[in-house]
C-alpha cells in the first residue's frame, strides 16, 4: 500500500464526517506518514504500524458526537456483538424513566472493540501464508470461482424468468378478461346466456390478475435483494435500512375487491352455463348444419386421393362396395366438393373463416368459443369399401387425420398443426407426416413405415412391421410398445425415447437432451452394442460379436435399457 491509496481509503471511510474535520484528519495522517518515511522507515513498516482507515474512522466517530452517527453506530455495534445501549441512551433518543430509582441517566457502556471486516480478516490470513501456498491453491480457487459464477448467473436468469413469467400471467389474465367482456357486448342481442357466461369468465380472469398483482412488489424486492447478495459475493450487507411504516389497508382492500369480483364473476358464469344445459357445445352460436353424402364408384379404382382445406377427415370401413363421403355444411358455410382426376376435394366455398378480420367477426357474432368448437362440424368422413385394396392418399391443412379398420395398399397421410391417428389397419407401406401435432399408431400391420413429425409426440403401439420401422421427430418424445420389425430406427431431439417389449435384429435409438430407457426382448449376448452419452448415466457397456445390432446415443440424458431374457 502507498500513501495516496491509504489516504484515499481513509477519506472514503470518513463518509458522513464534516469536510473540515475530514480534511484535518487526512492532513494529520499525511504528515505522520511523511515524518515516518523521513526517519528511514520503509513503507511496509509505516503502514503496518498505522491503524487501518476503517479503524481510524470508527474510533473518530465514537470519540466525536456527530448528528449523522446515531443509528449507524448503533447498528454497527449490534452487528459486532456489543450489548444494546441501556434504556435512556441518547443514541436512540429514548427518554429516561423518572422515579426514585432512576434519578439519573445511567452512563453509556464502554465502546466495543473494533472488529475488522471480512476482507480485512482475509488479508490478515493471506499474509500468514507463503506465495507457494497460494500458487498451489489457485487452481481450486479458479474452479470455485467459475462454479460460483455459473451458479449465480443461472439463479439470476431463472429468477428473472420467473419474474417475467409472473408479469406475463397477470397481463394475460387482464387482457383475456377484458377481451371476453368486450366481445360479449354484441352477444347479449344474440344469446344472453352465452354473453353472461363470457362476462363471468372475464370478471374472474381480471380478479385473478388483480390478486396476483400483489405478488409483483415482493417478488421485485426479493429479486433485488438476491442480486445484491450475488454481487456482494454471497456476503451479508450491513447497510442501515431506514425504518418504514407500511400500511396494509391498501393490500387488504385489493384482496377483498379481487375476491368479491371473483365471486361475482363465478356466479355469473355458473348461472349462464346452467342456462346452456352445462353443455360446452352450446358456448357458441352455430348455424343449422345439414349432413350431405356423396357416393363414388369403387370399380376399376386403384387409388383414392382426398384433399381437404382446414377440415378434419376420418377414414372408416364402408358397409357397401362404394366410396361414401359425408360432410356438414350450412347456408353461411357451404362446402365445395368435387372429384377431378381421381382426387376427392372438400374445401370451403368461401373464405368466411380465413384471416384475422373474419376471426374477430366470428367471435363478435358467435362467441369467443366458436373457433375452438368449429371443428365439431368442420369435418368429413370417408367410407372405404372392403373390396378396395389400392393406395390411399390424404392431404389436409390444419386438420386431423384418423384411419380405423382399413386394409389396403400404400397409405400416405400429410397434415399440419394437428394430429394423425391410425388404429387397427393393415398396409403394404405407410408414410405419415405432420407438424405441431401428435402421432399415434396402434395395432398396425405394415411391410414398412416412415413416420416424421415436427414439434410433436410419436407413439407406436402393437406395430408388426416386416421391414424397416422408421420414426423421427423433434422437440417431442417417441414411445414404442410391443413393436416388432426387421429394423427399428427411432430418432428425436429435445425428447426422450422409450421402448417397451420391442424386438428387432437392428435397433438404432438416437436423441439429444433426453433419456433412452425401456426393455428389449432377447438376450444382451445376442447384440453388438454401441452406446454413448454425455452428462448422464448408462447401464450398458459396448460389446462386439452379437448377431443383432443395438445402438443408443444421447447427450444430456441417461441410458437405461434392460433385456427381458437376461
Describe the overall structure:
This protein has 566 residues and is an alpha/beta fold. The protein has 13 helices and 22 strands. It has helices spanning 3-13, 19-38, 43-49, 53-63, 70-79, 118-127, 131-182, 187-190, 192-212, 216-231, 249-275, 355-366, 370-373; strands at residues 290-297, 303-308, 312-317, 322-329, 335-340, 343-348, 379-384, 391-396, 401-404, 410-414, 420-435, 439-454, 458-465, 468-472, 478-481, 487-491, 497-502, 506-510, 516-520, 527-532, 548-553, 559-563. The chain has a 22-stranded mixed sheet that branches. Strand 5 (335-340) and strand 6 form a beta hairpin. Helix 1 runs parallel beside helix 4 and helix 7 (131-182) runs antiparallel to helix 9. The two termini are 72 Å apart. Mean pLDDT is 82; it is low at 67-105.
Amino acid at each position: 500500500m502507498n500513501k495516496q491509496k491509504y489516504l484515499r481509503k481513509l477519506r472514503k471511510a470518513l463518509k458522513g464526517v464534516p469536510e473540515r474535520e475530514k480534511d484535518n484528519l487526512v492532513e494529520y495522517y499525511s504528515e505522520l506518514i511523511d515524518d515516518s518515511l523521513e526517519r528511514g522507515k520503509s513503507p511496509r513498516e509505516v503502514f503496518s504500524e498505522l491503524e487501518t482507515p476503517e479503524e481510524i474512522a470508527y474510533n473518530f466517530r465514537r470519540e466525536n458526537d456527530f448528528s449523522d452517527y446515531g443509528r449507524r453506530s448503533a447498528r454497527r455495534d449490534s452487528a459486532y456483538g456489543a450489548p444494546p445501549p441501556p434504556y435512556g441512551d441518547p443514541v436512540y433518543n429514548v427518554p429516561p424513566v423518572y422515579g426514585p430509582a432512576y434519578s439519573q441517566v445511567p452512563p453509556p457502556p464502554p465502546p466495543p472493540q473494533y472488529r475488522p471486516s471480512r476482507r480485512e480478516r482475509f488479508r490478515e490470513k493471506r499474509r500468514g501464508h507463503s506465495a507457494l501456498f497460494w500458487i498451489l491453491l489457485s487452481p481450486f480457487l479458479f474452479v470455485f470461482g467459475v462454479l460460483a459464477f455459473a451458479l449465480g448467473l443461472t439463479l439470476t436468469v431463472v429468477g428473472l424468468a420467473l419474474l417475467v413469467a409472473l408479469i406475463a400471467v397477470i397481463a394475460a389474465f387482464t387482457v383475456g378478461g377484458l377481451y371476453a367482456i368486450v366481445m360479449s357486448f354484441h352477444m347479449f342481442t344474440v344469446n344472453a346466456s352465452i354473453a353472461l357466461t363470457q362476462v363471468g369468465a372475464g370478471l374472474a380472469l381480471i380478479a385473478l390478475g388483480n390478486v396476483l398483482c400483489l405478488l409483483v412488489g415482493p417478488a421485485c424486492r426479493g429479486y433485488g435483494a438476491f442480486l445484491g447478495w450475488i454481487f456482494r459475493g454471497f456476503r451479508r450487507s450491513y447497510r442501515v435500512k431506514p425504518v418504514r411504516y407500511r400500511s396494509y389497508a391498501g393490500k387488504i382492500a385489493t384482496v377483498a375487491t379481487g375476491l368479491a369480483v371473483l365471486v361475482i364473476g363465478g356466479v355469473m358464469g355458473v348461472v349462464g352455463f346452467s342456462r346452456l344445459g352445462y353443455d360446452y357445445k352450446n358456448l357458441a352460436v352455430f348455424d343449422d348444419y345439414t349432413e350431405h353424402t356423396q357416393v363414388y364408384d369403387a370399380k376399376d379404382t386403384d387409388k383414392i386421393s382426398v384433399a381437404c382445406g382446414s377440415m378434419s377427415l376420418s377414414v372408416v370401413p364402408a358397409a357397401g362396395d362404394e366410396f361414401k363421403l359425408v360432410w356438414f355444411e350450412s347456408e353461411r358455410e357451404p362446402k365445395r366438393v368435387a372429384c377431378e382426376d381421381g382426387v376427392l376435394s372438400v374445401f370451403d366455398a368461401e373464405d368466411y373463416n380465413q384471416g384475422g378480420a373474419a376471426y374477430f367477426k366470428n367471435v363478435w357474432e358467435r362467441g369467443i368459443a366458436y373457433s375452438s368448437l368449429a371443428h365439431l362440424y368442420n369435418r368429413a368422413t370417408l367410407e372405404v369399401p372392403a373390396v378396395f385394396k389400392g393406395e390411399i392418399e390424404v392431404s389436409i391443412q390444419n386438420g386431423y387425420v384418423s384411419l380405423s379398420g382399413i386394409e389396403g395398399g400404400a397409405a400416405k397421410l400429410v397434415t399440419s398443426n394437428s394430429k394423425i391417428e391410425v388404429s387397427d389397419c393393415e398396409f403394404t407401406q405407410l408414410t405419415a407426416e405432420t407438424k405441431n401435432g401428435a402421432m399415434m399408431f396402434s395395432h398396425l400391420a405394415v411391410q414398412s413405415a416412415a413416420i416424421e413429425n415436427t414439434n410433436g409426440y410419436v407413439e407406436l403401439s402393437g406395430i408388426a412391421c416386416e421391414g424397416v420401422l422408421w420414426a423421427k421427430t423433434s422437440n417431442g418424445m417417441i414411445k414404442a410398445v410391443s413393436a416388432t420389425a426387421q429394423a427399428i430406427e427411432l430418432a428425436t431431439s429435445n425428447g426422450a425415447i422409450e421402448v417397451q417389449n420391442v424386438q428387432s435384429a437392428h435397433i438404432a435409438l438416437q436423441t439429444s437432451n433426453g433419456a433412452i430407457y425401456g426393455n428389449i426382448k432377447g438376450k444382451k449376448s445376442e447384440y453388438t452394442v454401441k452406446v454413448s452419452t454425455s452428462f448422464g448415466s448408462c447401464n450398458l457397456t459396448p460389446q462386439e460379436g452379437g448377431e443383432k445390432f443395438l445402438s443408443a446415443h444421447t447427450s444430456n440424458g441417461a441410458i437405461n435399457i434392460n433385456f427381458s431374457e437376461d
